[in-house]
Each structure stands twice: as structure tokens, then as C-alpha cells.
Write a structure and sequence with these properties.
The radius of gyration is 29 Å and the shape is globular. It is of the alpha+beta class and 597 residues long. It has an eight-stranded mixed beta sheet. A five-stranded mixed beta sheet has the order 9-10-13-11-12, with helices on one face. It is 33% helix and 23% strand. Helix 1 packs across helix 4 and helix 2 runs parallel beside helix 6. The relative contact order is 0.07. About 13% of the residues have low confidence. A hairpin with a 2-residue loop joins strand 22 and strand 23. Adenosine-5'-diphosphate binds next to helix 2 and helix 4.
């Protein structure tokens, strides 16, 4: 008897639906986005039991014909793209034609829809992908979409839903992410017959006020300053919170081309702009809207993912940092600006905001703004770097402000001399430059390892005989959590009994050093610095391994090795200090030298 058969459509849809529809909130997102795509200017969301029993979206959009209504529930049925290349020009929210097929696979759906040009509308009922009935009906122009008993046919998934309170919070979060980008659309949110939110059409600022400012004495938006900048690469506008109102429950929103996104790297740019202005672990609020050419981002990664990949993340980081910093400085919220009149210009006032003071010309990104022109010129790797090579490691981290001037000066202009097997010395335009060879290599390797972790790259050198690494019972959980990261830097390890790991492969750079010592160093340093934060421990892995594999003091380097080390080092965003703050590069100016004689 043949045992292979095709899955019935309903089952295939259920499986695929799991990816798109995880909870009522994902359902809300898909339905409201469809309403927006249909040009609705008024949208109502009604839920019962946090969307568990009912999630209803009523819009006054363009509606559907009866055939389109039926078609809309087929997988990959969409009116929004017709060829693969359209994927790169996405402006509408939905584009895969999967949402409705997924929703109707896991719920009992009832839709009424009518177009302006049709006298009567159409009503369709589908339960678990099966059409129950379709008939003509009398209804207003637009679409009224009811999703009842989500996961009625998948008890396991129903069990995964959290309490009503949590699911309602999820629903609201999803709702905020959408309404904040569509201030001109009127929204209402009703939960168990109670109107929770009513949002009239307005400006972005009014929308933010309406969503987050409810019941506050002082207007919420008065705590914000405007950010704005236009460059060829990106245009940025929005609002950032004044440092004095930063706190625990900060609202932090990034949007790109009308979509909410999470972007830890850009988040860091914003935080960097606040450096020195925040108390303790206070978090600033921000609402930042970005527009970029859709060709430069990839939103097609996964329908439910909010992470978005940009082509030019590093220059955008710089522009964002400069823009936010400028905004904070412009409204005199930054205490540290120093006013040298010759270098500053007056900026025009906007609206009812406090009077701006002055701002530095140099921090204002213009269309010609390209912080990387120097970096790019210098990134030329040669031979032994093929070992370390991956110049893109330089592309992840920001230049700190103080580095930039030094960067200009440190173009080596002459012969390089290795002194005492320890320092590399060379004349530069700024004076005599000295580089600590061991720390320089730590910097280079640190970025390499961190990059491997981030990109999930692995280059492991297999050992002929595995070595055994024994850890404490209380350490096992942490090691297990770190396993992926350790693999990415090159450790091929597997657990063979409750507290022993076999080390089958090691990072190529480790050469003769003991892998057990290196692993122990890593584990100890991670334990010492905060084992709860993944990005902290990843940094710690990268740093410890870099320390253990860096060229030692006393090693004589060939001219090529020196050249390459320096080329690599100067291409890094942070080459003046190691990650743990040790000085790598020092310059004795010509004046200081002259004083010695
Ligand atoms: P996508 O949004 O990716 O195209 P969906 O499965 O979400 O896929 O929707 C399928 C199609 O149904 C849409 O392309 C659109 O033509 C139609 N549609 C869905 N919701 C609405 C609505 N509220 N108003 C008008 N048309 C709609
Ligand atoms: Mg859609």
C-alpha cells in the first residue's frame, strides 16, 4: 500500500497558519492592515474575551466583490503583488496573500463586504477553511470581519494562549504599533462592550497624545522634542523624550516606511545620543519615523517578524545618532554643548517649542553627510588578514565622537618600527603614534568573534582527540545557554554526561593554547559580568577569546604582519580602546616631543 499522500488543504493551511497567526494579536494586525490597505479612514476593532471568542474589525474601506471575497481566502490570493519583483517595491502592508487563508483555517470566520458600486454586498461564512455559506446581503460599504473562536479546531494552540489580561495587552500593543503610523485614520477599540480607546483623526503628535497622554495633568507631548533630518539615504522625523522625563515605562517606537519595527542597533544609536544625560537605568521614550527607499530594506523575511534588515545600517546609525543628539542639544536639553560662536549657526524656531539655542554645524546631517568616507578609504586588507579577514566587522559599531578627529590624524605616513616586541611606532600627521600590538590584535579579534556570533558564522578546527571539559553542576544551565554562541566562535562541543563536555573542535585562532583553559576563562568572565544579558555575555565571549588568542608581547612581527595589523585596526570603529577600556593607541604630539629637548 502506498503510504505517501498529499495533505488535504485544510491541514496544510493549519500548519502554515501557525506561522502567521499565533494569537489574537496577530489576527488583529492582519485584519487592521487589510483595512488600511483597502483605504479605510475609519476602523473599529471589537474584541470579546481578549479576542478568544471574538475579534471583529469593521472598516469603511473599498470593500470586495462577491468573487473577490471568495478568492480572498485562498492561499497566495492577493490583489497587492503579481510578480516576484514587486516584493522589493512594497508599500502596502500585506503582500503575501496568506493572512486570510491562515485565519480561516483556525477559526470560524464571518465576513460581510460591499463595494460602493454594488447595490448589495456579500456575506461569507468559513469554518476551518471550509466554506459554510455565501449569500447576498444588505450591508454598508466596506468590510465587516468577524473571527470567532480562534483555534476552535486546534486545542493545543488554544492552551498556549495566556490569560485574558495578557492577551488584551498583546492586542493593545499591536494596535498601538499600527495607529501611531496612521494618525489620519479614525480608530476605536472596544473590549467586552466597553470603549477602551477612541482616536480621532489628527497629526502624529495628537495621536501620540491620544494614545499615551490620557488622564495626565501636563500634556504628554510637551515632554518631547522634535527630531528631523533628510538625507539621500534616509529621512527621519519624530519625537524624542526630554531626558528629565526618562523613566522605567518608556515608550520606544521605531517605524520604517509606515511599519513598526524593532531594531536593537538603532535603539543603541538613540541611547548613545542621550549619553551622560540620563540618571541610572532610566530609559528615554521615543517615536521615530523613518522613510527609506524600499529597495534598501528587506521586509520579506517573515510575515510576523518585526525585525527589518537595512542595507546601510552603519551610516543610518550615525545619521540617527547625530539627528537625535542635535535635537536634544537644539532645545537646550543637553547641558554639555559648548558655544564657540564661529562654529555655530542659529536655527529657526518651530512651533510652540522652547527657544532653541545654537547648534553645531558639523552635527547637522546634510545630503552630503557621509561619516564613512574616511573609513571606507582605509579598509584595504591584504594577505594575513585572510585569516582574520572580514572587513565588514568594522561596519557594525559606531564611531565614538572623540575618535573621529584622531582618525583623521592617524594615517601612518612613514616607516613602522617595532619596539621591544611590544609597541609599534610610526610617524603620523598628528605626531608619533604608538600602538600596543597585543591590545591592537585583541581589538581586531574581538570584532571578528563578535561578528561570527552575530552572523552565526563558524570556523572550527577539528581536534584529533577530543578534550574533556568538566563544569560544575550549577554551571551547566549557563553553558547550555551559551552553546550556540560558543559554536559560532569555533568551539565544537557536545555534552556527554551531566557535567562533562567533549571538545571536538576549537577556533582556528586558538592554535596551541589549551581549549579547556580558554573555555574556563570564558565561563568565568561571563559569570563575573552578568549572565542574564545575552549581548553582554556574547561580548564577554568575544573579548575573552580575543585575549586568549591575541599575538603575545615579545613576538617579532614581519613588516607585512605589522602593516596588516594596523590596516585592520584602523578600519575598526573603536580602535583607541579595547572593549574593557585599555588604551591601544597613543600619540605623542610634535609639541610634546619638542619639549623633551
Ligand atoms: P494580502 O493582504 O497579503 O494581500 P490577505 O490574505 O490579508 O493577503 O488578503 C487577501 C486579499 O483580500 C487582499 O489582497 C485584498 O484584496 C482582500 N481584502 C482583505 N481584507 C480586505 C478589506 N478589509 N477590504 C478590502 N479588501 C480586503
Ligand atoms: Mg493582508
Amino acid at each position: 500500500m502506498d503510504i505517501i499522500h498529499l495533505l488535504p488543504d485544510s491541514v496544510a493551511n493549519q500548519i502554515a497558519a501557525g506561522e502567521v497567526i499565533q494569537r489574537p494579536a496577530s489576527c488583529l494586525k492582519e485584519l487592521v492592515e487589510n483595512s488600511l490597505d483597502a483605504g479605510a479612514t475609519k476602523i473599529q476593532v471589537l474584541v470579546r474575551d481578549a479576542g478568544r471568542t471574538l475579534l471583529q474589525v469593521v472598516d469603511e474601506g473599498k470593500g470586495m466583490s462577491d468573487t473577490d471575497l471568495r478568492m480572498a481566502f485562498e492561499r497566495h490570493a492577493t490583489s497587492k503583488i503579481s510578480q516576484a519583483s514587486d516584493l522589493f517595491q512594497l508599500r502596502t502592508m500585506g503582500f503575501r496573500g496568506e493572512a486570510l487563508a491562515s485565519i480561516c483555517a483556525v477559526a470560524q470566520v464571518e465576513v460581510c463586504s460591499r463595494r460602493e458600486e454594488d447595490e448589495v454586498g456579500s456575506r461569507l461564512v468559513i469554518h476551518g477553511s471550509e466554506v459554510i455559506e455565501q449569500e447576498a446581503c444588505v450591508c454598508p460599504v466596506g468590510t465587516n470581519f468577524k473571527v470567532k473562536n480562534l483555534f476552535f479546531n486546534i486545542p493545543v494552540r488554544r492552551k498556549f494562549l495566556k490569560t485574558d489580561q495578557t492577551e488584551l495587552r498583546n492586542l493593545l500593543n499591536e494596535f498601538y504599533r499600527i495607529v501611531l503610523v496612521y494618525p489620519k485614520v479614525q480608530f476605536t477599540f472596544v473590549s467586552n462592550d466597553e470603549v477602551l480607546i477612541e482616536l480621532p483623526a489628527g497629526t502624529e503628535k495628537q495621536r501620540i497624545e491620544a494614545v499615551f497622554g490620557k488622564g495626565q495633568k501636563v500634556s504628554y507631548s510637551s515632554h518631547f522634542v522634535d527630531v528631523k533630518s533628510d538625507t539621500e539615504l534616509i529621512s527621519i522625523r519624530g519625537f524624542v523624550g526630554k531626558p528629565e522625563v526618562a523613566g522605567k515605562n518608556a515608550q520606544q517606537y521605531f517605524f520604517v516606511n509606515g511599519r513598526y519595527m524593532r531594531h536593537p542597533y538603532f535603539h543603541k544609536a538613540v541611547l548613545t545620543a542621550y549619553q551622560g544625560m540620563l540618571q541610572g537605568d532610566a530609559n528615554p521614550s521615543y517615536f521615530i519615523y523613518m522613510e527609506v527607499n524600499p529597495e534598501n530594506i528587506d521586509v520579506n523575511i517573515h510575515p510576523t517578524k518585526t525585525e527589518i534588515k537595512f542595507q546601510d545600517e552603519q551610516p543610518i546609525f550615525q545619521i540617527l545618532l547625530a539627528t537625535v543628539r542635535e535635537a536634544l542639544g537644539k532645545f537646550n536639553v543637553s547641558p554639555s554643548l559648548d558655544f564657540d560662536r564661529s562654529g555655530y549657526v542659529e536655527m529657526p524656531t518651530t512651533g510652540a517649542m522652547p527657544m532653541p539655542t545654537a547648534m553645531p554645524i558639523t552635527s547637522s546631517p546634510s545630503t552630503a553627510y557621509n561619516p564613512f568616507v574616511h573609513a571606507e578609504e582605509k579598509v584595504r586588507t591584504t594577505n594575513w588578514q585572510s585569516l582574520y579577514a572580514n572587513t565588514s566587522i568594522a561596519e557594525r559599531q559606531p564611531l565614538s565622537e572623540e575618535q573621529q578627529p584622531l582618525f583623521e590624524q592617524t594615517v601612518p605616513t612613514g616607516h613602522i618600527y617595532q619596539y621591544n616586541g611590544r609597541y609599534l611606532m610610526m610617524p603620523t600627521q598628528g605626531g608619533l603614534m604608538m600602538i600596543d600590538q597585543h591590545r591592537a590584535h585583541i581589538c581586531v579579534l574581538y570584532h571578528l568573534y563578535l561578528n561570527q556570533i552575530g552572523e552565526s558564522l563558524t570556523t572550527s578546527q577539528q581536534l584529533l582527540f577530543p578534550e574533556m571539559w568538566t563544569v560544575g553542576v550549577e554551571e551547566v544551565a549557563l553553558v547550555e545557554e551559551m552553546l550556540d554562541d560558543l559554536r559560532h566562535v569555533g568551539f565544537d562541543i557536545e555534552r556527554i554526561d551531566p557535567t562533562t563536555y567533549a571538545v571536538n573542535g576549537v577556533p582556528a585562532m586558538l592554535s596551541d593554547a589549551s581549549p579547556i583553559t580558554a573555555l574556563r576563562d570564558i565561563l568565568d568572565s561571563v559569570k563575573a559580568t552578568g549572565i542574564n544579558l545575552k549581548d553582554r555575555w556574547q561580548k564577554q565571549i568575544a573579548l575573552t577569546l580575543a585575549q586568549d588568542t591575541s599575538i603575545p608581547y615579545g613576538k617579532t612581527l614581519t613588516k607585512d604582519e605589522i602593516d596588516d595589523l594596523i590596516t585592520q585596526l584602523l578600519a575598526l570603529p573603536n580602535y583607541r580602546y579595547t572593549e574593557d577600556g585599555k588604551i591601544v593607541v597613543s600619540i605623542i604630539s610634535d609639541d610634546e616631543l619638542a619639549k623633551k629637548f
